[in-house]
């Protein structure tokens, strides 16, 4: 047996740790969601697509913790979240309605090595497919792509109820262009003059508005469990290999 | 309306146990033999602990119980897990 | 390093001598599940008590109800820190089901449709302490709450009240069920806060 050293296969990721975050700003993202901009001095930065476990503690010691995708990947020291309020939730209504600048939270992260995109690792095209607030980690990937010089073509198919429900609407519109294709599908109400009638995402629309399987894109799908499972199964029908499809389901109250 | 998430949500709890993130690691189901990343398991979070089940056969692959000062982890449903160096 | 986040209280917790330690009063009824929800039609439902002789005692849905259901009002305590008080239930007392069962064994494994299990001492199921429940809050049990029928053992943490109950097997020793294997207490008395191993 030769004793050759094993070459490190990946760049190292920061170890997840607990961090104290202070709210810098909270602002409405959609009628039901808020964007939280957090100052986290010890935050090392994160791969686009990763998430945090956010923990709240009540004065009597009661704790509640939930996972949220990070809408940013850089810079270190700063974390942006976009949180949709779930009716009857215990944590999200507090975060969306009650949180104010200066409030402090605990974050555990960065978390997740599966649903992440890292610039420069592959030349394959990237297809992002998001439903509702599932676009948050995909936006982080698109922003990281837009900020760097990674040449892979990017495309996002975003299924959303109405124009008012679009997360990061201005930022996504600003990214759209030669290197980043943006396709919106409105499920309840489309803007005036929109060419397609509002309606649920179908397999036909998915086939027409995404990078075809022959180009072997890396595909990232994030949304509700039902959305992700429908889309992942259509993608396989359309010829994408299961190993090329990365999925993340959101939920939790 | 019982719904599940997926293995991505295990990253925080498992980071207390493993030195690297294992949600991207492939593992084999001890029930049906399916090999897939931990992140693709079905994870039930509205339960007394996290319950990860095989996406192919529903067998329980792993459970995580947060007992306050302790974490109780079972990987009994996995026959093997591939950890990258 | 934990600190309180301003304004966060979570679910309301009011001290109440009817609440076991560490419990929070809820008005809704949270749904917990460790796997897919089985949907079992009452026409196909069957309940079995298996003893060491190998003789199975079986009841169909109609045979269960023919034993006579009773209305009870009681408190339930979930190990995930919520309790519900004064909850109306309807079910068949396990005393009626065990009437003709002869067994030397002192422990029981409850088995559910869907594969869930939980272990209990037999004495905790008898003398008016446990039921096969078919209704709660005046309605037939929804599948998400364990319908068509669940075990109801309100003096223990609610994971012992197995949803989608399909049978009980007598055991000579107190072998652990699903959560008892994965970290939860072998008995689960909420007043002694027997949550974990």
UniProtKB/TrEMBL annotation, chain A:
Pfam families tied to this protein: FAD_binding_6 (PF00970), NAD_binding_1 (PF00175)
Domain FAD-binding FR-type: 16-117
Superkingdom of this protein's organism: Bacteria
Protein name per the record: Oxidoreductase
PANTHER family for the chain: NADH OXIDOREDUCTASE HCR, PROTEIN RFBI
Keywords from the UniProt entry: 2Fe-2S, Iron, Iron-sulfur, Metal-binding
GO MF, one example: oxidoreductase activity
The protein's required cofactors: FAD
The keyword Metal-binding is annotated on this UniProt entry: yes
Source organism of this protein record: Promicromonospora soli
Keyword Cell wall biogenesis/degradation: no
From TrEMBL, chain B:
Domain of life: Bacteria
Pfam families, sorted: DUF6510
Protein name (database record): Uncharacterized protein
Automatic annotation (TrEMBL), chain C:
Disordered as annotated region, ranges: 1-33
Organism domain of life: Bacteria
Domain Oxidoreductase molybdopterin-binding: 35-179
InterPro entries xrefs: OxRdtase_Mopterin-bd_dom, OxRdtase_Mopterin-bd_sf
Pfam families per record: Oxidored_molyb
Protein name in UniProt: Molybdopterin-binding protein
Organism of origin: Promicromonospora soli
């Amino acid at each position: 047996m030769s004793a050759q050293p094993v070459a490190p296969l990946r760049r190292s990721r920061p170890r997840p740790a607990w961090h104290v975050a202070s709210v810098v700003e909270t602002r409405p993202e959609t009628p039901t969601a808020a964007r939280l901009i957090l100052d986290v001095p010890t935050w090392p930065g994160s791969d686009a697509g990763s998430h945090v476990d956010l923990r709240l503690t009540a004065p009597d010691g009661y704790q509640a913790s939930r996972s949220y995708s990070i809408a940013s990947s850089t810079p270190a020291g700063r974390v942006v979240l976009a949180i949709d309020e779930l009716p009857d939730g215990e944590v999200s209504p507090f975060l969306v309605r009650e949180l104010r600048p200066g409030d402090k939270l605990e974050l555990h992260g960065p978390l997740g090595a599966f649903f992440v995109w890292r610039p420069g690792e592959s030349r394959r095209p990237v297809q992002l497919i998001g439903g509702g607030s599932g676009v948050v980690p995909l936006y982080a990937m698109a922003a990281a792509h837009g900020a760097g010089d990674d040449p892979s073509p990017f495309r996002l198919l975003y299924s959303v109820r109405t124009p008012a429900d679009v997360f990061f609407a201005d930022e996504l519109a600003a990214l759209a262009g030669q290197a980043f294709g943006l396709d919106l599908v409105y499920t309840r109400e489309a803007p005036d003059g929109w060419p397609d009638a509002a309606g649920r995402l179908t397999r036909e629309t998915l086939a027409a508005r995404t990078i075809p399987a022959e180009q072997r894109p890396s595909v990232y799908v994030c949304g509700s469990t039902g959305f992700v499972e429908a889309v992942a199964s259509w993608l396989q029908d359309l010829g994408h290999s299961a190993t090329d499809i990365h999925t993340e389901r959101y939920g939790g109250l | 309306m019982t719904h599940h998430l997926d293995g991505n949500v295990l990253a925080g709890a498992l980071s207390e146990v493993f030195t690297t993130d294992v949600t991207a690691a492939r593992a084999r189901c001890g029930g049906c033999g399916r090999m897939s990343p931990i992140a693709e398991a079905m994870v039930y979070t509205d339960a007394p602990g996290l319950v990860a089940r095989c996406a192919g056969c529903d067998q329980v692959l792993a459970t995580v119980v947060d007992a306050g000062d302790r974490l109780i982890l079972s990987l009994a449903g996995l026959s093997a897990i591939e950890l990258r160096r | 390093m934990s600190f309180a986040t301003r304004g966060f209280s979570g679910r309301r917790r009011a001290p109440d001598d009817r609440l076991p330690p560490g419990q929070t009063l809820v008005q809704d009824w949270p749904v917990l599940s460790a796997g897919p929800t089985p949907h079992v039609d009452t026409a196909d439902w069957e309940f079995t008590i298996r003893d060491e002789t190998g003789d199975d005692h079986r009841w169909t849905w109609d045979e269960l109800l023919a034993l006579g259901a009773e209305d009870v009002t009681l408190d339930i305590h979930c190990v995930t820190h919520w309790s519900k008080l004064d909850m109306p239930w309807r079910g068949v007392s396990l005393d009626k089901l065990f009437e003709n069962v002869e067994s030397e064994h002192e422990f029981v494994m409850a088995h559910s449709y869907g594969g869930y299990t939980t272990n209990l001492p037999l004495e905790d199921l008898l003398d008016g302490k446990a039921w096969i429940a078919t209704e709660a809050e005046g309605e037939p049990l929804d599948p998400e709450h364990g319908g068509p029928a669940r075990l109801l053992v309100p003096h223990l943490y609610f994971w012992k009240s197995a949803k989608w109950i399909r049978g009980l097997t007598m055991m000579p020793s107190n072998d652990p069920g699903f959560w008892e294997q994965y970290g939860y207490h072998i008995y689960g008395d909420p007043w002694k806060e027997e949550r974990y191993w």
